[in-house]
Amino acid sequence: MIKFLFIALLITVLTVLVAGLRITIQDSIDLTFNPEFQLSNSQNEEKRLIQTSSSTAEWMTEEQVFGLIRNKIKFMDITDYRSLGTKYKAFKKHEFPVTPAFQDEVMPLINNLTTKYMRKNLEKFTSFRNRYYKSKYGAESSQWLYDQVVTIVKNSNYSDAILSVKQFPHRWEQKSIIARFQGSDDDKSNEVVIVAAHQDSVNMWMPSFGRAPGADDDGSGTVTILEAFRVLVEGQFRPKRSVEFHWYSAEEGGLLGSQAIASHYENLGVDVIAMLQNDMTGYVGKKYPEAFGIVVDFVDPDLTEFIRKLIKSYAQLPARNTKCGYACSDHASWRKAGYPSAFAIEGAFEDSNPYIHTSNDVLDHLSFEHMLEFSKLSVSFAVELSHI
Ligand code: BES
Ligand code: ZN
Question: Record's InterPro entries (predicted)?
Fold first, then answer.
């Protein structure tokens, strides 16, 4: 019996390994000149165009994409967004402030932040079996999150024209969510500042059915910005330039939700002044002293310099530069569209949460105090960049 189980296990492991290998050695498409890259998806109905490096993409089945996730191969699903960044019209370059200047407005807001709601929200958010974008649980968790944002808005006395929330639908069930403070300055009506996180989670072994609490990835970012949003609403925040909070669907599917929204904004000609991604804000690593990880690749260097200044002014932790080494989260979709984006993570990339994408990405490994520092960054980002 034991022998039989061992052989079965061996066969499973070999199948997974071979599937992974097949993917890496498959014919690839050179993004720089291959005309097939621009072809429609008609002969490839069930396949997706998956970019695995800066210059290559391959048509893959869902099973092959699952193989990438299992083998920790980095990818972006560019099937529907092959023109992302090609229509972008260069807006006049906005300079970021030399120094933060709205302490009087930011400080009382920050003082109203609390871990209480973050904990309560994250407990519920991690109780969905998973938040995979194609699973029914992913659709349910998205609806629950939308209801929380709506409740915060309903408890305020803003008019609908000044504070609104909407669900952004996709070709899959899990919707992205966008909450918007309408800017008061008509001269800036086409401009927006974005604070974001992704709401989906994934179990790398069984994406659709496996347990994926995604407490850190990215439940932490989700509640970090929800708490920032709550204090801004309670504080009657009224920016000159519009500010939006985004909770993306399908980041784990290859940055799908953020690409859809970035490409929509690019088509509309919206002038995105700055975008800040919050993905994994809750785990304090063991290798280095506690700090913000400031991602310095696939981001805008000037905006990144400005978030260092915000951290110095408003947070209680130092900042440490780090790199993902690839387009690891939704900031990359905005950057690809041509807009300035920045990304703060829980610490150095190599010191980040080892449990992500498994059933063990749970609350016990996280620090709410650590997350709260990121809420301070989001609040100050929204205020300082929307009044100038
Ligand atoms: N949260 C991760 C990225 C990350 C990992 C940030 C470690 C900071 C530290 C993100 O959700 C993710 O899993 N990204 C994918 C790539 C994505 C394009 C599918 C990944 O890293 O494999
Ligand atoms: Zn992830």
Answer: M28_fam, Peptidase_M28
pTM: 0.90
Q: Separation of 329 CA from ligand 1 center, angstroms?
A: 6
Q: Please give the residue that has the higher pLDDT: either 20 or 99.
A: 99
Report the phi/psi class of residue 72: left, alpha or beta, with left for phi > 0 and alpha for psi in -120 to 50.
left
Range 54-68 average pLDDT: 91
- From the CB of 358, is ligand 1 less than 6 Å away? no
- Edge to edge, the sheet with strand 191-198 lists 163-168, 176-181, 242-248, 191-198, 271-278, 341-345, 292-295, 319-322
- Mean residue pLDDT of the chain comes to 90
- For the chain, what are the domain ranges? 2-77, 103-387
Q: Is 326 in the pocket of ligand 1 (CB under 6 A)?
A: no
Active site residue 365: no
Which one of the listed residues 198, 246, 370, 387 is annotated catalytic? 198
Asked if residue 295 has its Cβ within 6 Å of ligand 1, the reply is: no
What confidence score (pLDDT) does residue 42 get?
A: 47
Name every residue whose Cβ is closer than 8 Å to that of residue 213 and which is 6 or more positions away in sequence: 126, 127, 130, 201, 219, 359, 361, 362, 363
Cα torsion angle, 319, 322, 324, 326, sign: positive
Q: Is 79 in the pocket of ligand 1 (CB under 6 A)?
A: no
Q: Which pLDDT value is given to residue 39?
A: 42
Give the pLDDT score at 28. 40
Which of 328, 356, 357, 370 gets mutated to test ligand 1 (max ligand atoms within 8 A of its CB)? 328
Q: What is the CATH topology of the domain spanning 103-387?
A: Aminopeptidase (3.40.630)
